[in-house]
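User: Fold both of these, please.

Assistant: Here is the first one.
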Amino acid sequence: MINREKVKLMTKIQLFENHEKEALKANRFFQHDYLGLYLIRSFLAYVVLYVLVLTVVFLYNWEELLRKVDLFVFMQAGKTILLSFVLLLIPSMIVSYIIYWFRYRAYRRKIKEYIVNLKQLNAFYQKDDQKEDKKADKADKAERFETADKFSDTKTAEKFNKAETYEEKT
């Protein structure tokens, strides 16, 4: 017979596994490792974006830069580029940290709910196993009594039952 509650739990679990793949990935990491990984990714994305923007600005101002070929101008431009890189990097990393911290927390809440559902499903299966074990035990006892009844004397039947009991213990 189909248990509706078990089917509902199985559906919730499957939907979670299909739609929350990021949460399952995040579950493989400790919070510190998850944040570190995504901060490194954010840093690399920031560097690539900064270099692209710098390249576009350089190409746009190409003629003007060639006219002012002076070491002092290039030193000043280098300082400005480095300073802007650092001043933009710090808020970018702070925002990334906050975003990924909140994401990790949200994923952990979802994973906790997922684990509760898995435990409930496991409890359903354990109840089913216990019911099947009880049925099997009853069938074994009935079979033992039938076999014992086949023996004519009671001493042979008792020996048979003791042997069966000994086999179950070992």
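And the second sequence with its predicted structure:
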Amino acid sequence: MIKKKLLVILISITFALVVLFSCASLLAIKKVEVKYALANTDVNAVQKILDKNLNKNLLFLSEGDVKDLLKRQPYLDVVTVDKKFPNVLSVSVKERREVYRIQTDSASYILDENGFVLNDTGVAMQNNEIIDLSFISFVNNPSFPTKIEVVSAKLGEKLQTTHDQAFYQTLKIAKNVGLFDCIKSISIECIDPIGWQEFDVEFLTKTGVSLKVMDLLVDGERKGQVCFDAYNNEASDYQKRFGNILGYYSQGKLTVIHTFEGQPDTLFEDI
């Protein structure tokens, strides 16, 4: 009787293993489809890297596993990872665009529009123009830090600074207005190096107008949008060549003025 039970158990285990190995074989990745949105990257090299997923179990493969393979390719962004059962992996890859250059005392970095570090040489590899982004301070005191500093700049990862809220708020404004081609440089100025709660950001356009968002952390996105709208809606190209456009709150109202030829002109004011 005991021998019969052992035989039944052994047969059951064997059957289970056969089913398991059959499923594993059925779900082994046989093809990796790659959809590209690339201009400057060798697609064959990308395909070769992603083909390392071949014969892995599709069921247990995660999106993180796929992204890890491209970690050493900072210019590449994995947009989607789709599993087509039983054995096809589909990956959509796009190329990150060089947008910003940040120069510190000891290094220079190229970033994309979202703040991902693309290279640490400061040399642009693509043909588009680069926006110089800098951190400055309202005061100069060698006894303590008075401006934003870079904390970590790992390739393929987002830049980390001593005040990410101000830094990424600035990138968000630039991305929202979608006017990268008209911006020459950006500077983020720390006005309060003690409490680190007040920052101004200046967008210098290629036409020569300075757009300044005052007190960045207070409704900065709206101020930035209204400033750029005011710049775009100026009556003539001549007026877009000079002066300063300032966005700030005055008596609880968002106000935007354009100081042009020594005269401030109110372009926007909350009702």
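The chain has five helices and 15 strands.
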